[in-house]
Amino acid sequence: MFTVTRYHDISCGHRVCGHENKCSHLHGHNYRITFCCAGELDSLGRVIDFSVIKEKLCVWLEEHFDHRFLIWTEDPLADALLSLDPKVVQVPFNPTAENIAEYLVTVVGPEQLRGTGVKLIRCDVEETRKCTATFTL
Ligand SMILES: Nc1nc2c(c(=O)[nH]1)N=C([C@H](O)[C@H](O)COP(=O)(O)OP(=O)(O)OP(=O)(O)O)CN2
Predict the structure, then answer these.
(1) Which residue of 95, 105, 108, 121 shows the fewest CB atoms closer than 10 Å?
(2) For the chain, which domains are there?
């Protein structure tokens, strides 16, 4: 099996609801998100053109998460934050790096890559240069 990867950098705010320490505070990261796609080679010898990964997945990040604040729908602070800024993004998970990676692979990938014959099989979400979470199908 062949795989191709492409990363994209976004700035995003979040808090980890229930975190024992400083990550329960509102804060942000310059995330590096690496997409890994798998599939058969086309007649030119590509899994998928790198520009299609950009168009389908990196642009999705720009439009939905970049320069936005991610808040879990069940976070007790969600209503207060939404009343301050209706552009706060409600997500159906506590926004740890792990959960962001899983959401991208299981929800966003299948929607965005529908019809391409290619699957998003892994996503690495780097919160800082020291810390990365990965979800793999
Ligand atoms: N497994 C996970 N652990 C943590 C996550 C996560 O998503 N998955 N997230 C956080 C926080 O978001 C936090 O901002 C990062 O924590 P931490 O590495 O402790 O903080 P720093 O980058 O500031 O590192 P220092 O070396 O302490 O300065 C926490 N954990």
Answers:
(1) 121
(2) 2-136 (3.30.479.10)
